[in-house]
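Aim 2 progress. For PH domain-containing protein, the working sequence is reproduced below.
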Amino acid sequence: MTLEEFTNSTVSFDALPKVESVSFQPLNKNYLNVVYLSNAIFSVVLAVGLTFFILFNDFVRENVIIWIALLVGTIALQFWLSTVSFRKKGYALREKDILFRKGILSTTTTVIPFNRIQHVALHEGVFSRMYQLTELQVYTAGGSSSDLHIPGLPKEEAERIKSFLLNKITVLENVSSVIEESIVSEGVKEEIQAAIHMIEENPSDSENEIQP
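Predicted structure tokens for this construct:
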């Protein structure tokens, strides 16, 4: 590219793709039951701990009504936050990337381009296995901070998405290899042309080099 061919035109923000226009697929409804089961176990642990303090701590025993109210409030808040979080979660596949949306009070949307994906795996938890659900784990070149985990997917659907992503990765790797080979070939071609040009300009020097 020559200097005359270089352009740097202004990009219209109206022409940029909008995440709001993406249709997100909600998580499987049974995943909420998985979350509730985890919350229930945590609630039982809290209740057992409070019971222990009631039996062996005079201060807690004297204010048992307040502590029980705090326990009930904490459990109720936990279940409410889990419900809100579940309703906000969603995922989507586009031609060149995968998206995952999550949040409670605010919403965060993570976008992973296919060319950044290094590995794709599936993970099943104990409770998720009861409902035939699995978690899609997408690992990128950016480390754990940029990895993507999508829970609550039906097992068959997760397998299809995994196969789709792996196929995309393979295609992109093949394209990259072809581009690299073409770049190398072009470089070799340029070197050969330069050598031929030098020989044409200095035929006497090349003849002297060839003579024994």
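The chain has six helices and seven strands. This observation will guide construct design in the next reporting period.
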